[in-house]
Structures are given as C-alpha cells and as structure tokens.
Amino acid sequence: MKISVAMCTFNGATYLGEQLLSIAGQQRPPDEVVICDDNSTDATIEIATNFARSIAFPVNVHINEQNLGSTKNFERAISLCTGDVIVLADQDDVWLPEKLARIEECFLNEPDAGLVFSDAEVVDDRLRPLGYRLWESVGFNSAQRRLVRSGRVLDVLLPGWTVTGATMAFRARFKDLVLDIPTDLPLIHDGWIALLIASVASVSFIEEPLIKYRQHVHQQIGAKENTIDAQVHGGLAGAREAMQRTNSYDDMIRIGTRAHQRLAERRDIYESDAALTRLAGRIMHLSTRARLPEQTLRRFGCVVRELLTGRYHLYARGFFSAAKDLMRKDAATPIQRT
Question: Are 148 and 205 in contact (CB under 8 A)?
Fold first, then answer.
C-alpha cells in the first residue's frame, strides 16, 4: 500500500516546520508528500522546499500561480497524489508518531472501507491541551458513532461538519468521484469528500486522537469547545464559527441535491443506487420539513402525513423530531441532526 500525504499551505511559516517534522517522524513514513502552496508571501515556500531537500521520501512542492483558496488548493493537491491512500494534512497541526501506521492498519483490516478518520486532541498555539477533543466540538458523540456503525453514515454526514479534513484519509480510487470539489455549497472540501465516499463505500473511524489540532487566531476553521466554558480559551469563537454553525434545511437540500447529481453522473463507475435512493428520500423529507405551514392545524396534518411515510424514522429521530416540528414557532427554523 502506497500512502500519499496531500498538504496545502498558505502563509503558514509560523507552524509549518513543526508539522513537517511530525510527518518526518512517523513510525510508518509516507511514500510521498505533495505540498501545494497557494502563492504564499512569507517563508512557507522556503520551509517546504528545504524540507523536500532534506528528507528521504519524495516531497513534491507545487506553487500556485494565483491564490486558489483552500478548497481548490486541496483539490489540486489530491489530484497530484499517486498513492493508493491519500491522507490530508493541514499546515499548522502536529501528527502523533503512530498516525500513518494506524491508518494503514485500518485500511488493511477493512478492505471495504473507503474513508477513515480519527479524533484529535485540541491544543492552543503552543500545543498546550485545551482539555477537550475534536469530536466533542463537532458533536460526533456516541449516538452519532452508533449510526455510522449501523450503516446510517449519510444521516450523520449530510450536514457536512462531522469529518475534519486534518484527520481524514481515503482510498485514491475515489478521486474521480470527489473531484472536482464544488465551492458554491455551505461546506468545504472535507465535508464533500466524506459525503461522496460514504455514499459508495463503508466508513471507519479511529476513536483515539492521532493529531494535535492546533487552535490559533489566523486559522480558517477550527474547533471550539462545545460548552459555555469555551469562552475561557481566548476569544476564538469568531474564527471557528463555521465548525459550529447549523445548516438550514435549504442548505442541506442543496448539499444533498448536488451529491445526488454527482453520484448519478458516476453511477457506471461507482455502485451508488442505494445511496441515490436514500439521498432522494432524505431530500424529500427535508423539503417537507422546510416548508411546513405556519398554521398549527395545517402543520399537524403535514407532520402526520410525513410520519406515515416513515421518513421521520428513516432520516430523523422519529416521533421526537415530529413533536419538535409541531412545537416550533417558526416551521423553517434551521435545525441540524433532527
């Protein structure tokens, strides 16, 4: 099994050296590292180039002629990887030494797994633990993990914020499914990749943290603690808003519709009939809930009819979700995982 690391950089000189050293120190070294730099103006390119010259395994540094943005930069890095497994890497984290070995072990033991992701220890800019893990922050709790194990992966991943790219690895044979990555949806590259691969292959997760997920004021997206005590960790809420946001029904309908379109386009290559059926049903359910009438009696009739279809139990939390819809003052209120 050949493992490629796809890393994107942009003005990351402050932390990039530590991340590269942690990749160099892996118990199971990568077979190649592909670094795509998004036209940095600091010392990032110099650090990456010097690393490439000093290390035994191949490191290919590509510099974009113009800034592509993180999603398209990751798209380019993924497209340039030649390995059997592609492991995504941010520029500012630190990998634990066993990360690649654990990922390889997981793929070898689970040949049907198309995607693997792990938990992460959330740390500050100086790598000091903040007292919580990434899965706590994104709400990937025991109930969500049970859904994944039972095969209801799409129900967990459709909102788009469960799998963090910095912890993700996937089999390269799915590159043609996930590329190109849309930039006009309310999710970024990691959510799109996870959703598409989960539609055609099994997903596995590693419960232990395999990276130190660094929080600092300059990052694009991070993870804040999912409690009121998060305020003590330094005013990071603004920069981390995307990770904690709630996707509206209309957002999830847009995501699901685009995923359905991509799966239909590639159905001759990837077995996606079951996922297409499930996505279509979930989109219909979300559309119904997004457009519930304001008038109580009319809403009651719509909720009962939706209950009779069985979709509340297939795509939400059954009677509990139906009751919430009946009690909501605003029928179109965005709710995630309901």
Answer: yes
